[in-house]
Amino acid sequence: PDIDVRKKCLDIAFELTSTRNIDDVVSVLKKELLKTQDQEYEKNNEYRQLLVHSIHACAIKFPEVAAKVIHVLMEFLGDAGSTSAVDVVSFVRYRRAGAPIHSTLLMG
């Protein structure tokens, strides 16, 4: 699908996310994010950035999922030429400052 269609789907999914389905939503987002490493798609970097941003938004809205996504996001710190790495650093910085309980998880 076109990147605009994917963005709209992610926006709709985020709006429909609740405490009852957050684990399922994050699971699908993580799977999609991992798929961007393997697939050849013209707008892969842009789609990856949208997914990282969506996961970050979910973790802000539902802090209990942060520990479940941090390790997946950390894999994208080395993305050369992509803003996904900047988004991941932003997420880690936000979680470190906003949730000291998880700081041990972030530090190793």
SSE topology:
Blueprint: H1 3-15, H2 22-38, H3 44-61, H4 66-74, H5 84-98, H6 103-107
Oligomer: single chain
The rounded distance between the terminal residues' Cα atoms is 37 Å
Poorly predicted runs are 100-108
Strand content: under 5%
Average residue pLDDT: 79
Strand tally, please? 0
Shape: globular
The number of distinct helices, counting runs of at least 4 residues, comes to: 6
The arrangement of helices and strands along the chain is HHHHHH
Radius of gyration: 13 Å
Structural class: mainly alpha
The proportion of residues forming helix, as a percent range, comes to over 70%
Task: Please give the largest β-sheet.
Answer: none
Quick tags:
disordered C terminus; mainly alpha; 108 residues
Write a compact overview of the structure shown.
The protein is mainly α and 108 residues long. Helix content is 71%, strand content 0%. The chain has helices at residues 3-15, 22-38, 44-61, 66-74, 84-98, 103-107.
